[in-house]
Amino acid sequence: MTLNPNIRPDLKLIADLIEPNTRVLDIGCADGELLAFLVANKHVDGRGIEISQDGVNQCVARGLSVIQGNADNDLAEYPDQSFDMVVLSRTLQAVHQPRNVLLELLRIGKRVIVTIPNFGQWHVRLNLLTRGRMPVTKALNRTWYNTDNIHFCTILDLHDLIEAEGIRLLDFVPHQKSGMRLNMGLSRANLFADQALFLLEK
Amino acid sequence: MQASPFNSIRLFESTPLQLDGGAQLSPVDVAYETYGALAADGGNAILICHALTGDQYVASPHPTTGKPGWWSRIVGPGKLIDTDKYFVICSNVLGSCLGTTGPASLEPETGEPWGTRFPVITIRDMVRVQNELIGELGVKKLLMVLGGSMGGMQVLEWLTTFPEKLHSACVIASAAKHTAQNIAFHEVGRQAVMADPNWQQGRYYDAEMAPSKGLAVARMTAHITYLSEDALTQKFGRNLQEREAVTFGFDADFQVESYLRHQGSTFVDRFDANSYLYITRAMDYLDIPGRHEGRLADAFLHARHVRCCVISFTSDWLYPTIENKRVVHALNAAGVPVSFAEIETSFGHDSFLLDVPEMDRMLEGFLATAAETFELEQRA
């Protein structure tokens, strides 16, 4: 099977953490880029959940198994520990009940990858400080009234929740939107990283 | 005896068909149409299952009405389900009246029409007959079985009963069990037929009059459930039928009344009242989760190799999204690969028969990848 070199760099960071021949659920899988890559290159049994009709159609045309739905409503039906890995990429900030969703992910999946856009990044902080308005940046490019992001958090915020729930943090990969990794700890990453990946286990 | 106007085959001659209700049926005539040619490797066969009052004429004109095939919009040469590429099979269901054995057929022992002595059948019985038919046609494994409404129920029974014969399955606007509301509407239809004095306990075949009035009322009621309030409002509103004002009488003042009367009266020309009773009963008896102590997922444990696709419509209140999603969740829980979409339409349950581009796109992608994977599987 040929390797597809064109996968988006931030998705590549996720793909690198997924073992071959495992069962993977990608929530908010969009056009199925990550899942298609994993199926082709790692022979995973991949499933997706996607809210848009257009995304679902693109996934189906790629031969993927994708269900139209969302993280708030459609996780309860999945049996416990039915996936080796559950991926929630740049979606946690857009759900109604982030804590419930996070716990559901850990119920369904043996391991969970969550990535979030980092609201603590210095551009965002400066933007709010100087302009006095909800920040609009390259990574967060919508105004407050039409953004899908209803539960913004910073890297430290999510880390606090992970600790409070007694969830094990197995890996932490702060990175830029370009996919470039940043080698730094939580606090510095909270200031400098566009987004961050958390690998979690119950 | 007059030659049958239908393409049909006689099955279950030596071994009778064992029905869910306990009775046996032998022989069983099955009327069917095929389009395209079966490939040498047998890997291009698609079975399309029709709905309650549908028929085998999926892509060719109906012999009585002359109307184009009921899904000729997407089935035919060069179309979405391309009969230049695929071998498409569609058969009239058991209990129906277009050439397949049903209550209007002659009972072998008496030589008289069965009428209500015909045994009550189930959706699974219909599927058993289809299974026998595809075998006779030389098909070992279907590339796809698909259908909408009652056709989707047959697809679900294929998944529970003959999963080894399937590579992929597509269920549109359907359900794994009939709800109280579904049964209630069907009961109104059946009572309308049985209240017609011409019904005569089902023995009307030699009489001059069939229970057409009752059957027309049944069809009118059912037709409302196939649409939506939005669709009715958009199409008719309170528009009057060829008049300037209401007449203060009981003529069809409103366009919607005239439309329903027309639907009722044209239906009786092409459908048998007893068949309507039997097929609606078969649908009411459908309860796949009920056969598995309420766990629908258990019904699909042997279908893990079958690629599935489920489609529902926002405006369908007959088999709404929630019933379709129950199927999706069960397939998922059983580990069956399944895709699902709830497509935005205003046409109601009938959407599956209409021009819905998003449905077409979903079907097109699903069929293309199913064909691709089936070919790979057969080469391996």
Number of helices of chain A: 7
| Structural class by sheet pairing and helices of chain A | alpha/beta
Q: H/E element string of chain B?
A: EEEEEEEEHEHEHHHHHEHEH
**Fraction in beta strands of chain B:** 5-15%
Total E-strand runs of chain B: 12
Rg of chain A: 16 Å
Shape type of chain B:
globular
User: In which order are the strands of the major sheet of chain A placed?
Assistant: 3-2-1-4-5-7-6
Number of helices of chain B: 9
Question: Stretches of chain B where pLDDT falls below 50 for ≥5 residues?
Answer: none
Total DSSP E strands of chain A: 7
> Which assembly state applies to the chains in this document?
heterodimer
Shape of chain A: globular
Map the helices and strands:
The complex is a heterodimer of chains A (202) and B (380).
Chain A (H helix, E strand, L loop, with lengths): L8 H7 L7 E5 L5 H10 L2 E6 L2 H9 L3 E4 L14 E7 L8 H11 E9 L4 H10 L23 H10 L3 E8 L10 H7 L2 E7 L1
Parallel strand pairs in A: 1-2, 1-4, 2-3, 4-5
Antiparallel strand pairs in A: 5-7, 6-7
Helix pairs in contact in A: 1-2
Chain B lengths: L7 E4 L5 E2 L5 E2 L2 E8 L9 E5 L25 E2 L4 E2 L4 E5 L31 H14 L7 E5 L1 H12 L6 E5 L7 H16 L16 H15 L2 H7 L19 H16 L2 H12 L22 E7 L7 H13 L4 E6 L13 H23 L1
Parallel strand pairs in B: 5-8, 5-9, 6-7, 9-10, 10-11, 11-12
Antiparallel strand pairs in B: 1-4, 2-3, 4-8
Short key terms for the protein model shown above:
heterodimer; A: 202 residues; alpha/beta; 7-stranded mixed beta sheet; 7 strands; globular; B: 380 residues; 8-stranded mixed beta sheet; two-stranded antiparallel ribbon; 14% strand
